[in-house]
What we know:
Chain A is mainly beta. Chain A has no helices and twelve strands.
Amino acid sequence: AQTVTQSQPEMSVQEAETVTLSCTYDTSESNYYLFWYKQPPSRQMILVIRQEAYKQQNATENRFSVNFQKAAKSFSLKISDSQLGDTAMYFCAFMKLFQGAQKLVFGQGTRLTINP
Amino acid sequence: AAGVIQSPRHLIKEKRETATLKCYPIPRHDTVYWYQQGPGQDPQFLISFYEKMQSDKGSIPDRFSAQQFSDYHSELNMSSLELGDSALYFCASSSTTGTSGSRYEQYFGPGTRLTVT
């Protein structure tokens, strides 16, 4: 079974700073996807970014980028120029690919607070 | 853009009662997933449906059942409710006909907060 570990339960930075959230995973699969989801106080789960395991290039979405190290099974999220609206719980998620629907396996989450 | 719709948003039930949660996926999405998120926990996969057929099953109690209908909406039926069933229940949807990467993206609804007293 796949496991996802987020070793930082909480983080806090000042507005406009850059912050990196860590995520490691354990799998014997070679074909999979990784995601970061954001859960603000509203509890809505919002997709932040996606990374395909077969791609060497790190995904980027505006101020959000990842550092994907496949051999190390590491998948960190970097938030640049952090904003107050980035305050949320962030979940790293793993998806094994097989025929049919693919479930997400989440890490425990990192609570990120952006201070003014 | 249209999002996943879940109803009701809040539900209060007593122990041993039944509850039905509904999910309306994003239009043209053919796959639905149900997740349960307990207080202070990460979401846990319950069950999924692709083209109205159950495609995967997680740690879903036997007291729970679900189905996907011809219009692709899905319902999660929960019977003999227990205090431990109190949680936020998410429905997510995805489309297998999207581009190679986007077809694996799951979009979540706002959730149904179930409280069992």
